[in-house]
């Protein structure tokens, strides 16, 4: 891309050109801007998954100077799998630097479509195909009452429960969306992971009367998902290195161009 400015007769014309150059560079770096406190409309209709990842996918703990975060096992795989089918919208409060630190560890592959720090932003989405994950009572207020899937918060210890949540959300895609609200409401005030696992085990045994080792079957499914993700991870890590190299020389240019606009 040629970033040299041609001779222009007026200062306004120069500013317009610089702004266009900045916009092009930011698009190359996949920097999403949210205008007018409202998400842009979906280009293609997809189910939407809204979540607050803290206490679901990570926990933060105080450290000597600031804080440290602990990522829940299989969080990267969880986001990667669901991003194929859902538009994932995440809300994490905090400063821009805090958010960057968290998402650099939680979502290095950019599986989350929108990373919000303001709950007042209009999602601009059809609530009929919206699932909102809640880990604490009244976490979202009354706004998404009919869309809430209540799950237990992560206790910070190693577990594999995200596979169950992944399976539940993936299975929803195979049923009529008009039943979603009723389905998620059936887990209200119940320990989601234990109840869903019990339901799946009962279904498995009813369909596999002679081959009834449910735990072995689930382990096989998990292992296959892990292998698929690890294969994809090799390609994604290579792409991250390329994007980082590009960012190292483009970011200073963006900063310089913005000083021209100011």
From TrEMBL:
It comes from the Eukaryota. Gene3D superfamilies: HAD superfamily/HAD-like. Pfam families: NIF. SUPFAM superfamilies: HAD-like. Residues 64-175 form the FCP1 homology domain. This is TFIIF-interacting CTD phosphatase, including NLI-interacting factor.
């Amino acid at each position: 891309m040629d970033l040299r400015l041609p001779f222009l007769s007026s200062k306004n014309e120069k500013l317009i050109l610089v702004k266009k150059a900045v916009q092009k560079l930011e698009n190359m770096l996949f920097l999403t801007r949210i205008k007018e406190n409202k998400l842009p409309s979906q280009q293609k209709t997809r189910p939407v998954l809204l979540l607050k990842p803290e206490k679901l996918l990570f926990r933060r703990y105080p450290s000597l100077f600031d804080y440290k975060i602990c990522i829940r096992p299989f969080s990267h795989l969880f986001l990667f799998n669901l991003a194929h089918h859902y538009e994932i919208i995440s809300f994490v409060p905090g400063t821009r630097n805090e958010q960057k630190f968290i998402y650099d560890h939680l979502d290095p592959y950019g599986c989350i479509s929108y990373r919000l720090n303001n709950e007042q932003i209009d999602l601009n989405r059809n609530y009929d195909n919206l699932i909102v994950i809640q880990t604490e009572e009244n976490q979202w207020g009354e706004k998404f009452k009919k869309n809430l899937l209540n799950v237990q918060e992560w206790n910070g210890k190693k577990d594999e429960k995200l596979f169950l949540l992944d399976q539940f959300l993936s299975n929803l895609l195979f049923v009529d969306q008009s039943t979603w609200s009723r389905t998620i409401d059936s887990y209200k005030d119940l320990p989601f992971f234990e109840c869903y696992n019990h339901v799946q085990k009962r279904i498995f045994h009813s369909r596999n009367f002679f081959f009834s080792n449910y735990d072995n079957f689930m382990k096989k499914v998990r292992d296959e998902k892990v292998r698929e993700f690890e294969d994809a991870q090799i390609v994604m890590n290579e792409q991250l290195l390329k994007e980082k190299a590009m960012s190292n020389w483009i970011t200073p240019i963006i900063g310089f161009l913005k000083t021209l606009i100011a």
